[in-house]
Amino acid sequence: MTRYNGKLALMYSDKFRSYIGRIELWVLEDAAKHEWSNTIFSLPRLACLKTMFQVYCATDDDDAGEFIVAPETLGAPPFYVLYYDPKKNSLRRVDIEGITETKLEYWDNDLDRRTISIFPSQVENLMFL
């Protein structure tokens, strides 16, 4: 669950179709009437990256309406996420610095612990007050 254009939304990426880049978006248009709209977005450019991707959330802070798409597994650095803009049908890549270890004990040994969490509005300040 996420927000999209200020409304409650559900983003879905079929695990078997995420390689070719398919995102399904359900938006609650009228809560009282239980009316939902449905849109399917195709991201064919993901197929050339030879990586399985998962859709995590939509950015809604600045009304850009972009989707955050990330690889399902950690590969060789740099780790990255993709921002998909459905209005422009464009992708942009953002490298994430600071993840240097690709050999992670729990990650590598237990498939049930392979979880990536992405929070687009998270800002971390390491300065002590």
Automatic annotation (TrEMBL):
Domain named F-box associated beta-propeller type: residues: 1-119
Residues in the signal sequence: none
Matches recorded under NCBIfam families: F_box_assoc_1
Record protein name field: F-box associated beta-propeller type 3 domain-containing protein
Organism field: Microthlaspi erraticum
